[in-house]
Amino acid sequence: MNVSYPLPASNNQRVLGYQINSGPLNMQKIVWAGCFFKEEEELEMKHVFISQNSMSEYTHCYWPYDSKHPLILSSEHYNIFDLSLAVKKSNRYLFILNGQSFFLPYLPPSLHNTHFNLKMEFCDKGMIDGVFAMHHQFCKKALKRRKRNIKFKGFKKSRVTNLTKYKKYIINFDVLENKHHMNLNIPIESLNTQQKELLDQAATLLHMVFPTLFKVT
Known about the structure:
Elements: E1 29-32, E2 48-52, E3 58-62, E4 71-72, E5 93-97, E6 100-104, H1 109-115, H2 125-145, H3 147-150, H4 157-171, H5 193-209
Antiparallel strand pairs: 1-2, 2-3, 3-4, 5-6
């Protein structure tokens, strides 16, 4: 283990700088390489990879040995981190490994904020961006599959045109450039009236525009 950085160093340094081309972290780059995760193993700190998006935001992930891309670490995996090693309140560690300088976080943002009892002013954007990217690709494929059905003659032209416009607007919406962000760390029951109203409006819109995504099977 590097003395200046809590995550164990691996022999996968050749992966550093690799741009991910598929999966929930598509187009992000690997800035810390852990060990590939094999099926018979238990997930440990040595398996942690870190990726970085174009906004310089980090996402902690792990890379199954038989997968083409890494997967995002969820909160159920956070028990693999040794919190006693988290000594930087800024969650940034400057260190040198194999002659290369690094300036990286140790803990995922939400776990770090909880550990240091910091105010949750921002959502865990790395995780949200990754999940949104995966859902974005799903919506594009779903829209393409249903394109012929949307335009069949039984619908009124104006209704089909408006529905299609709503779908295209949502699918092509760039969440990274939008100035409005929802703090997902606030429990729903703690939302104020205005925040709850905005959440209800967003949920209503998604159910109306993409009704088949929410069917209970």
